[in-house]
Amino acid sequence: MKKILLSVVVLIGLSGCATAEFRESDYAQSAQIVSTEPQGGRGATRGLGLGPMLAQIPAYDGQGQLIASWTPQALPAQAPTFVIVHGGHGVGGTDYVMAHRLRTEFNANVLVLDSYWSRGRSQNWNRSASIDANVRTFDAVAAGRWLVQQGVDPNKTYLIGGSQGGWTVLRAFTNEPAIANLVKPLYRGGISLYPVCDMGPTLAPYHSPVLLLTGGRDETTPIERCPRRVTQTAHRWVHYPEGTHAWDIAVNGPLSPNVDGQCARSANPAAFRMCYSERITNAMYQEIRNFIK
Known about the structure:
Number of strands: 12
Largest sheet: 8 strands, mixed
Distance between the termini: 24 Å
CATH class: Alpha Beta
Radius of gyration: 17 Å
CATH superfamily: Alpha/Beta hydrolase fold, catalytic domain
């Protein structure tokens, strides 16, 4: 493994495997329409120039609609598209800030996809979190199919998420036939940030390119807990030794500037530390830019 400055890089090289874990009857959960937007979404989306969070994407099983914020460019087919899948706290400020930055700096179409509030729950500990990587893979498939109807190019479409969202990315790109047959026609690649990867279903090797970014000071999802194939079969793995979990966190909310080095504690029972790093966040966006070229 070759170290470059503060990075570790691994190139893809192993073949796929199959298990019987990913079954539509087990994991394609219906959605339900709720009366309010998740996590104060209306003010955030309006303030950042994003589309409102609306119940608008038919769930994979056709029962109910997933909530999402959809903000296309004028010519959607000519732009890259990012589907942002949230972490275990549900959709929040960090997701909206990411959508805004991808839209403005990459001239991209952006979709912020909700999996929790669409089903009347706001946090991962309100749900059966151990199965969410499978449940949310079906949500990503539903979103990808809907986006094709909106005129986007699947060959320019990427699934991106951090923490439990990063776990979802890894699962969606795991090379099991039942997954690959659904996901591969809809997404060019996946971008997984500080993912959960030490629980639940099989992860890796991958059917399509995966960019994996991890932090050395991550207290809740340290990469050392994960099977080696998670990193070894990524198209590119970059490890930031000083990065905490959620190094791009919108500490002061989506509409207020971050302060470099400012930290917060997770609201969930684990109470892990998350510290915003301007340097790592900027490096992350440069990695994303290089990945989609």
